[in-house]
Amino acid sequence: MNLTLKIWRQKDKATPGQFETIEAKDISPDMSFLEMLDVVSEEAQKKGFEPTAFDHDCREGICGMCSLVINGVPHGPEAATTTCQLHMRKFKDGDNIVIEPWRAAAFPVLRDLVVDRSAFDHIQQKGGFVSINTGGTPDGNAIPIAKQEADLAMDAASCIGCGACVAACKNASAMLFVAAKVSQYAHLPQGQAERSRRVLAMVEQHDAEGFGSCTNFGECEAVCPKEISVRVIAEMNRDYLRATLVGTNS
Amino acid sequence: MSISLDSKTPKGPLAQQWDKHKFDLKLVNPANKRKFKVIVVGTGLAGGSAAATLAELGYDVHAFCFQDSPRRAHSIAAQGGINAAKNYQNDGDSVYRLFYDTIKGGDYRARESNVYRLAQVSTSIIDQCVAQGVPFAREYGGNLSNRSFGGAQVSRTFYARGQTGQQLLLGAYSALSRQIGLGAVKMHYRSEMLDLVMVNGHARGVVTRDLVSGKIETWAADAVVLATGGYGNVFFLSTNAQGSNVTATWRAHKRGALFANPCYTQIHPTCIPVSGDHQSKLTLMSESLRNDGRVWVPKDKADVGKDPRQIPEEKRDYYLERIYPAFGNLVPRDIASRAAKRMCDEGHGVGPGGLGVYLDFADAIKRIGRAAVADRYGNLFEMYQRITDESPYEVPMRIYPAVHYSMGGLWVDYNLMSNLPGLHVIGEANFSDHGANRLGASALMQGLADGYFILPYTIGNYLATSGQKKLTGEEPEFKAAAEDVRKRVSALLSIKGKRSPTSFHKELGKLVWDKCGMARNARGLQEALDRIPSLREEFWGNLNVLGDGDSYNVALEKAGRVADFMEFAELLCRDALEREESCGGHFREEYQSESGEAERNDEKFTYVAAWNYTGDVSKPELIKEPLIFEEVHPSTRSYK
Hints:
Shape of chain A: elongated
Strand order of the largest sheet of chain B: 5-2-1-9-17
Radius of gyration of chain A: 20 Å
Shape of chain B: globular
Structural class of chain A: alpha+beta
Number of helices of chain A: 8
Low-confidence stretches of chain B: none
Mean pLDDT of chain A: 97
Oligomer: heterodimer
Strand content of chain A: 5-15%
CATH architecture of the largest domain in chain B: 3-Layer(bba) Sandwich
Order of helices and strands of chain A: EEHEEEEEHHHHHHH
Number of domains of chain A: 2
Radius of gyration of chain B: 24 Å
Largest sheet of chain A: 5 strands, mixed
CATH topology of the largest domain in chain A: Fumarate Reductase Iron-sulfur Protein, Chain B, domain 2
Largest sheet of chain B: 5 strands, parallel
Number of domains of chain B: 3
Structural class of chain B: alpha+beta
Largest interface: A-B, 80 and 84 residues
Low-confidence stretches of chain A: none
Helix content of chain B: 25-40%
CATH superfamily of the largest domain in chain B: FAD/NAD(P)-binding domain
CATH class of the largest domain in chain B: Alpha Beta
Distance between the termini of chain A: 60 Å
Number of strands of chain A: 7
Strand order of the largest sheet of chain A: 2-1-5-3-4
Distance between the termini of chain B: 47 Å
CATH architecture of the largest domain in chain A: Orthogonal Bundle
């Protein structure tokens, strides 16, 4: 199939970007979206144009690095699918495809379609952990954990930190990301000791990074490639409220 | 001058070696630890866990990753699980059995002392990860759940759905994040190591390039740890991440570190077959699928093009169950891969090009129901369907082997230190524990064993005894190494030829796969050795990298990595040519039994092949570390 791509090009953080129109020819439906971009980049290089920069690594939907807004939707038209797992059979001959980076003040564009997501790391560094050192831990079966609780923790823990939730949110809020981490630990006995401290610290850092507030539209859940439910935001709000009322001593 | 290798294996009974060794290691006083700076390159399971643990101990840690966050490292893609000798299932597991299975699985080409220690610390890893909040799968009673994996007859694999690597990496990442937040680790994101700096015979720092700004920087430290993963991408198509590369270990090799057993590459039996020339990577389907899936091909060659559901039971060849009744579909990876290749070579392969075999869940769905199958493998089935447009619930999966893991790597001693004092190598980047073949669910175990429980002890001994003076990074050795890197970057940019880095990578990968892939022979390897230097020459004469070195330049990044693969590929083929036997992932067609099983030559090849860079990539020097088996007697590996 043949396609017309409108791709965002930007030299660096400081220089304004613009769209560039590129024709993509002889695209196979079995290609992944990123393989389509590989082919287009190879052709462009032959003509003396620099390849488009985009983030990607594992190409199997788990590392969370790929990050494209495709026709206005983070990760494109297929539900529960990262950009790298999206295949061209979802498009048809003659389609126009607009490709943009994540757009959020807290995710500045570094080049073309590559954004800086270190704000997520900063949030994690404030409380996304259990404060234990290596060694001296009890036997793995010492504390039984009900299967349903372990499953809920795992549902939340499957977040890949891609940032699609932020890109989809009209407020550029990262609440789904923060809540997924908070919820994981809230469902596990190991997370209880720091439960209140964690939620306060992570939300505070979320705001400091320049992410917006959550207004419960649920756009984040709709685009999340791991289908993380907004339930986790409700759980986090409850923990947050509790922590602000009773403090961090419990 | 030839190097003599000392593995520093402790004396005495195997079971007591690690305890005794820990006691013999010199300690660094808690108040002095902060005076020692340690560089950790790579933040996957090994690097992330090491950086966090060293910082917890009080060392001044600088960590580097080329991705935008430590959480992206390719450990994240491991699906199936992590082994540990907990014996929670009461099915006869023990430290000794895990040790034995690993030595045998590695086809008797690993060091006994290292493997025994790995089995010993495996149990602590599970405890550590549970305490971090890793949501392992649980039974209804609240205990940890286990599954079986290839090469073992006990259930010792712990898992978190099909995302075990992700959850363990996020555990290590959480520990690392905590230390970054506390200021104990300085994290350098999107930063690629391009050289190792040696001062006074010791590894004392690295040269990095900031991938966003293009800035080339030097970093001095008291010790360097490489945790930079494997070299599977030398084959171009592999299950590795796009960015995975050999550069850090290859640069260290060219500064004097020995490269051990590069020919031990693991071909994973269950990957999604290639669909076309555009393919950029191969996607693995977890080995855990072989717990419930049955592998088969049509008995009759005329049936290979038919809808598999129309092929009756008696016309199917469940060849793994037929040839290996004791282990059936759960034979180790190398055996399963070669059997699949043999079936396809004999004309029984299915799908495009006849390069595929069926992995069928129809019986499992009948036995335990669709919901139970979905609970175990749902995310894998979805991934398969996204890529192939076929549902494994309805139609058998098609699978084919693909390059997955590298057992070879930089040579290290029992302390995980290379032959270069101060240079430590952990995780997949070293050669130490898996011999010629790694068992499933053992990579996660080794990465975390090295990072949490071994290196933090052994590096202290080096720091306490090295007696080297403090450096600033302004010494002439640093300036010279940075200048080398600058020259190399501008050399890549100034060729202005006609071909892209990717086109060279594809050509090299195809050559290495054809001549040094799942099956190798002397003639093919010699052809590859003749061809690689001329391909390298063409690379340096006809490469085209657009853009400049002072900005984010994806083509430049790629070109540097391909340049190193161009050199490394030659060592890989040379090692494969020199090892005139078949063992584990290294299958030489000349050395096989009548039934096509690998034939080792213990008399001549019970050694580690450690290669020394002599200044000429085509003329490396082979140094041998003999392997001594005191506990396990090498025998013909049988899974029948």
